Amino acid sequence: MYDGKVALVTGASRGLGRAFALDLAQRGARLVLLARSAGTLRQVAEEIRERTGGAAPQVIVADLATPDGPKQAVRELKALGVPLDLLVNNAAIGTQGSFLARDLEPQLRAVAVNAGGMLALTHPIAADMVARGSGGIIVVTSGAAFSPMGYLASYGATKAFQLYFTEALAEELRGTGIQVMGAHVSNMDTTFGEGPTAAVDPKADQPSDVAARVLDDFARGRAASYPGSFMNRVLTWPSRVLPRVTVARVATAYARKRGLDKVVEVGAS
Ligand SMILES: NC(=O)c1ccc[n+]([C@@H]2O[C@H](COP(=O)([O-])OP(=O)(O)OC[C@H]3O[C@@H](n4cnc5c(N)ncnc54)[C@H](OP(=O)(O)O)[C@@H]3O)[C@@H](O)[C@H]2O)c1
């Protein structure tokens, strides 16, 4: 499924994006890696070159939060002259903590990357795939997409945006030869989140396990992937049957239990 295919992974400089890149390379894909940090991206590209013995992946340094970032990325993709077979929309910014206690600016940046940047990249790439009659798109969302949750209010809303967008796009593109899948990941052992002080969940999933499961699910033609524990999948069910107010209250109590209400800016007292 992936052997010889060209895949763009956004947010490939660390965390789950890096894990996707390493796994796709092992499965024989040719990679284009995108993020803002040029040095770290090149390190990942070099790591892949060493592990596979092939050519180093292409690197695109772009900020998906800016209006020009996705446009520049698409220009660079076109200049490479190789059509994309797979787009993995993984880059995102997490903003945990009280909506009012956290600064507004990182929350606006999260909306810009997770919603605007993802749309701006997907639009031209999906159009090209449809014109060729083949391709695949994976959007990494979150368990937080399924329930309104206090202390993840703005981030959770961006993930709900991604969830609805992905499910709707999959239907729009049905019959075009393009496969669209949402990957609803749960807590992972990564450095996710700009500036928060919340501790990593000790039961967090390893990004390499998550990437492998998502890629296996996509290869099986699934419309959705739930790569975490079965309980994480079960936690997405109440919001489908219970009143939304109840879901928001329970989810927010859970967030408080996890200490997300205590998250402050790094450096703030
Ligand atoms: N970690 C979790 O517990 C968790 C839970 C549920 C869902 N998720 C989802 O899983 C995905 C990956 O998360 P992660 O934990 O691997 O996060 P991470 O370790 O913070 O990595 C985020 C990646 O996105 C890139 N990125 C951030 N802002 C960007 C921008 N403006 N333009 C371009 N690239 C940008 C970062 O690279 P640069 O900084 O170099 O730009 C980095 O490569 C995200 O979609 C997240 O919402 C994570």
Automatic annotation (TrEMBL):
Keywords: Oxidoreductase. Residues 5-184 form the Ketoreductase domain. GO terms for cellular component: membrane. InterPro entries: KR_dom (IPR057326), NAD(P)-bd_dom_sf (IPR036291), SDR_fam (IPR002347). It holds the Pfam family adh_short. Belongs to the short-chain dehydrogenases/reductases (SDR) family. This is Dehydrogenase.
